[in-house]
């Protein structure tokens, strides 16, 4: 492998811990000073850490990521960024959790083609699953409202950002405790909402 190895890590909120990704980078041999990080949602690529990374990497360098969803959540944008890095910048990409996606510069043209096909398929599946999850949230909320079950005190209204936070929790990006904190409710209330919707 030629050039310099750079790592990119991302968690969805400032309160989340990125130690697991940092440990994986260190174990792979990425120098601490070559790791770029963001603590925000992967809904787009307007992130300071990612932008700084793109300015830094040069031809023959290799980008290391823990998993493909650390790059982002949007299917089309992930594909666009992947091609920008591998084709325009002529850098390799190593996905630690799925070696089949690796496009390291030492791999054959066929290997790199297979990796790109796999990336397209996996990104599509991931986005389809997220859409289905959002649909389940919407349907679950509607069903809960239709049941109209009100025992004891008046139920707390679902916060405006509930759907977004529930989505992150359902994907394992937020703990139940953190999801409840961000929604401004106790753990019991969040667990109850999650059970009704799930």
UniProtKB/TrEMBL annotation:
It comes from the Bacteria. PROSITE patterns: RECOMBINASES_1, RECOMBINASES_3. It holds the Pfam family Resolvase. The keyword Transmembrane does not apply. Keywords: DNA integration, DNA recombination, DNA-binding. The active site is at residue 12. The keyword DNA-binding applies. SMART domains: Resolvase. One of its GO terms (molecular function) is DNA binding. Gene3D superfamilies: Resolvase, N-terminal catalytic domain. Residues 4-148 form the Resolvase/invertase-type recombinase catalytic domain. InterPro entries: Recombinase_CS, Resolv_N, Resolvase-like_N_sf, SSR_resolvase. GO terms for biological process: DNA integration. This is Recombinase family protein. It comes from Schaedlerella arabinosiphila.
